[in-house]
Design a protein that fits this description.
two-stranded antiparallel sheet, rRNA processing, helicase activity, ribosome biogenesis
Length: 303
């Protein structure tokens, strides 16, 4: 190390080695050291990347990396990630216990997914006439030309007794999307007998007083023509009028979790006949810490 042989001429003996200047040696060492650092740095970056995509332990701890490094490229990693995703989705489908794979229907910016969504009975309702609902139930829709996207897709599922999760913007007609099927549920159960002191059949839970009042206003108006009544229960006001409405007999209860739980525990509001439940802005109720109240209320229903 550190010494170099001079080339000899064809007719002479080998010349003794001469030492390379010390400065040149240091320069060579420095270059090698610098190169080594660069390699180490590169190796560290590769290691981080491998941990992210989830390679085997032998790659994560660095062993076997030099040996198999050339066998891996971006395509292999991408293929591995896609394979994992496919397996995950497959697992989700089998764990759901639905008994069949979910289907998906896309139309414009509307997506409907779930079991058997392509069956004819779940085809979107394109017109009020096509819904085949009673005239008194559709009385509240006279100001509209046709059902909104959320209504046209929610009605077939809810009218057939399916659970439904709907996501739509404010002002898209969400309240009537569940309100009209709720009214039909009441009419089918009551069979024209609206007795005094009847217990509610439908429940709508809302996170705030303001939202509960808005929903109540829409449902009160929608139920007038068919004789379906509603009451709104919320805190910050006297319980007297709310208790009186409940005792008189009601079909829809719309309320906030806190006040509704109080009235249920007082024995004033009976939910034992409720089989149609709506959680409006359920995620917001959970964010506000109402999970225990919601669970307690739902445990009192028959659904």
């Amino acid at each position: 190390m550190g010494k170099k042989w001079r080339e000899s001429s064809s007719d002479s003996e080998p010349i003794a080695p001469t030492a390379i200047p010390e400065q040149e040696l240091k320069s060579d060492k420095k270059k090698k050291k610098k190169k080594k650092k660069k390699k180490d740095k590169h190796g560290k970056e590769e290691k981080v990347q491998e941990e992210v995509v989830g390679l085997s332990p032998e790659y994560q701890n660095g062993s076997g990396y030099k040996r198999k490094k050339k066998q891996l490229d971006d395509t292999d990693l991408e293929f591995e990630l896609k394979s994992d995703k496919k397996k995950h989705k497959k697992g989700d489908s089998s764990d759901s216990g639905s008994g069949g794979a979910d289907e998906e229907v896309r139309e414009g910016n509307v997506v409907v997914s779930g079991k058997d969504v392509k069956k004819p009975k779940y085809i979107p309702v394109e017109s009020f006439e096509g819904s085949k609902l009673p005239g008194e139930v559709l009385e509240c829709c006279k100001g509209f030309k046709k059902p909104s996207p959320i209504q046209s897709r929610a009605w077939p599922f809810l009218l057939n007794g399916r659970d439904f999760i709907g996501i739509a913007a404010t002002g898209s007609g969400k309240t009537l999307a569940f309100g009209i099927p709720g009214i039909m549920h009441v009419l089918n159960k009551r069979k024209g007998k609206m007795s005094k002191g009847r217990s509610p059949l439908c429940l709508v839970l809302s996170p705030t007083r303001e939202l509960a009042q808005q929903i109540s206003d829409v449902l009160v108006d929608a139920g007038k023509a068919s004789g379906v009544t509603s009451v709104c229960l919320y805190g910050g006001t006297s319980k007297g009028p709310q208790k009186s409405a409940l005792k008189a007999g009601i079909d829809f209860v719309i309320g906030t979790p806190g006040r509704l739980k109080d009235l249920v525990e007082e024995g004033v509001c009976c939910l034992s006949e409720v089989a149609f439940v709506v959680l409006d802005e359920a995620d917001r109720m959970l964010d506000m810490g109402f999970e225990m109240e919601v669970r307690s209320i739902l445990s009192k229903t028959c659904s």
